[in-house]
Each structure stands twice: as structure tokens, then as C-alpha cells.
Design a protein that fits this description.
This protein has 313 residues and is of the alpha/beta class. Helices cover 36% and strands 14% of the residues. The chain contains 11 helices and 9 strands. The strands form 2 sheets. The chain has a 5-stranded parallel beta sheet. A 4-stranded parallel beta sheet has the order 2-1-3-4, sandwiched between helices. The longest helix is centred in the C-terminal third of the chain and has 19 residues. The two termini are 19 Å apart. It binds phosphoric acid mono(formamide)ester. The site of phosphoric acid mono(formamide)ester (CP) has 10 residues, from α2.
Length: 313
């Protein structure tokens, strides 16, 4: 299977074969990252613009470094210092960036659907770096990449996603990717944040944390998305932590080879204790490292790359 898409807008519309093509291409780029000279000329002469209209540490820097490793010219759009503040629309902003010969526009926006909107009128490739509570496709790709590298497979694994599912774009993209690759997905958290409607996607829903983590091969923790919640969805942070936080006592219930994942940023002492975040079973920082290879793969593929066979060994 080779890649033919110009944009990466979501995981929902990808096939399992397309996801595997990204993962295999990322593995080839990870090998490039282990060489003395870590740069390849795959995007030489191309311009990549990071259009981040919401805060980010990992995703923005990872895309910037990925573009540099591919020898692209990369521009970071500073929303706070831009003419968006003078009333310019997102459409006009994007069209002006394209008039400066942008080849790839990576967008993060608080509005669900913003990347899809841009893809309707731009000639440039559009990559979704997180849109509202909808999707965060490269996070899910780096998560399944990490699972596959650590466990040797994704199919048949039991993955528990624990936390604020309702407001999480990471959860939605992970659910699509994991189910397409044959994992069994359990969602857990307060009933207000993990409604049973998610069962329609093919997930198991439980509000009993001990039951959710006991058999899990992977526990992926999510923070409370305060910026997207319109009202308090649970009585207090303290109560959330005591009922759903992953601490040393709860870790004692888990399988000895469970992987602990988190997309970041982590809120220590809320959804995850430091004992857990920094324990040997935590792969949180490996996820960040793998994100670089995954984002190199995505930039390469939307620019016309076909798959891992095109990357020189
Ligand atoms: N995981 C993630 O999207 O982190 P940032 O918000 O720092 O990009």
C-alpha cells in the first residue's frame, strides 16, 4: 500500500493500511535520526508553516524539527503577534501564507474542523495538529507507533484510556487508530466525562478504575481539558485524583509489563503521580522522541512521498 493523500486531517478517514504506511515510514526516519548526519533532502526547497493558534510545546517543536530534518524552510506563525489580533480571518491569514509560497500548512486551532476548512480552498497540503475536541492525528500515530515498537504489535492488545475522554481530541484519534489496528479499547473516567455513547465507536466503557487498569497492556492517561470544559464536570480536582488518578497503590494492581502513556502536558499529582510518571514502565518521553520520526513521515508523505521504500537505507 502506498500513500496518495495530500492532507492529513484526521484518523477517522484513514485505512489501517495507510496508518501502517505512516508507521513503517516513521521507522525508516527513526533510523535516519540515529545517523551522524540526521538531515535528508526530501523537502529541500519546500516551505512549511506552523500555524498554531493554540498553545503547544511538543507538537509545534516536533513539527519544526521534523521539517528542519527534511531540509525544508520552516516558519513559526506567532498568533499573538499576528494580524489575527487586528481582525483578519483565518481564511485570509491562510491565503496570505499561501501567497508566500507555503507548501505545507500545519494548523492547530480551538475550532473543530478548522483544518478541513482550510483544505477546501488551499493548494498547499494541510496537516491537523489538533482541532478543538475533534482530532489530533499525529499524536495518535506516535502513540500507536510507540505501542508497536514496545510490544511488537497493536492487534489484540488491551488499551485503557483513562481520564477526560469527552473533551479530548487525543482520545478520539487514538480510539480510531487503535480500533482500526485491532486493539481492544476500554475508556474510563467519571461518567460525565466518559459517556456511554462512546460504546457506539466500538469501545468498552467503565467507570471503575481498578477494573479498567487490571488487565490492560497499555494505560494511556489524559489530563482534564479545563480549556474546553464549559462547566465543572466533577466536584473537585481532589475528588477526581482520589477516584481516577494513577498512583503507586493503583499501579500495584496492573500487569507487570503494562506501558504507561500520556500525550502531555502531564499534571503531576492530578491524573498521574510522579511515582508513576517517572517509573520504568512509563514511556511518556519515548512518545515525544517517536513523535519526531512520525512527523517527519507525515511531512514526507503529504509532500508526495509514497512510503518507506523511498527512504534510502
Ligand atoms: N501532546 C500535545 O499535543 O502536546 P502539546 O500541546 O504541547 O503540543
Amino acid at each position: 500500500m502506498s500513500w496518495t493523500r495530500k492532507h492529513l486531517l484526521d484518523i477517522q478517514s484513514l485505512t489501517a493500511d495507510e496508518i501502517v504506511t505512516v508507521l513503517d515510514t516513521a521507522r525508516a526516519f527513526r533510523a535516519v535520526g540515529e545517523r551522524a548526519i540526521k538531515k535528508v533532502p526530501a523537502l529541500r526547497g519546500k516551505t512549511v508553516i506552523n500555524l498554531f493558534i493554540e498553545h503547544s510545546t511538543r507538537t509545534r517543536i516536533s513539527f519544526e524539527l521534523a521539517a528542519q530534518r527534511l531540509t525544508a524552510d520552516v516558519i513559526n506563525f506567532a498568533a499573538e503577534a499576528s494580524s489575527l489580533k487586528k481582525g483578519e480571518t483565518l481564511k485570509d491569514t491562510a491565503r496570505n501564507l499561501e501567497a508566500l509560497n507555503a507548501d505545507i500548512i500545519i494548523i492547530r486551532h480551538s475550532a473543530s474542523g478548522a483544518p478541513h476548512f482550510l483544505s477546501r480552498f488551499l493548494e498547499a497540503s494541510v496537516i491537523n495538529a489538533g482541532d478543538g475536541a475533534h482530532e489530533h492525528p499525529t499524536q495518535a500515530l506516535l502513540d500507536v507507533f510507540t505501542i508497536r515498537e514496545k510490544k511488537g504489535k497493536v492487534e489484540g492488545l488491551k488499551v485503557t484510556i483513562l481520564g477526560d475522554i469527552l473533551y479530548s481530541r487525543v482520545a478520539r484519534s487514538n480510539i480510531w487508530a487503535l480500533l482500526k489496528l485491532g486493539a481492544k479499547v476500554t475508556l474510563c473516567g467519571p461518567s460525565t466525562l466518559v459517556p456511554r455513547v462512546f460504546e457506539r465507536m466500538g469501545c468498552r466503557v467503565t467507570h471503575d478504575v481498578n477494573e479498567a487498569i487490571r488487565d490492560a497492556d497499555i494505560i494511556n492517561l489524559l489530563r482534564i481539558q479545563h480549556e474546553r470544559q464549559r462547566k465543572t464536570m466533577f466536584p473537585s480536582i481532589g475528588e477526581y485524583t482520589s477516584l481516577f488518578g494513577l498512583n503507586k497503590a493503583r499501579m500495584a494492581l496492573t500487569k507487570p509489563d503494562v506501558l504507561i502513556m500520556h500525550p502531555g502536558p502531564i499534571n503531576r499529582g492530578v491524573e498521574i503521580d510522579s511515582d508513576v510518571a517517572d517509573c520504568p514502565r512509563s514511556v511518556i518521553l519515548e512518545q515525544v522522541t517517536n513523535g519526531l520520526a512520525v512527523r517527519m513521515a507525515v511531512l514526507f508523505l503529504v509532500n508526495g512521498g509514497k512510503g518507506p521504500h523511498e527512504i534510502l537505507a
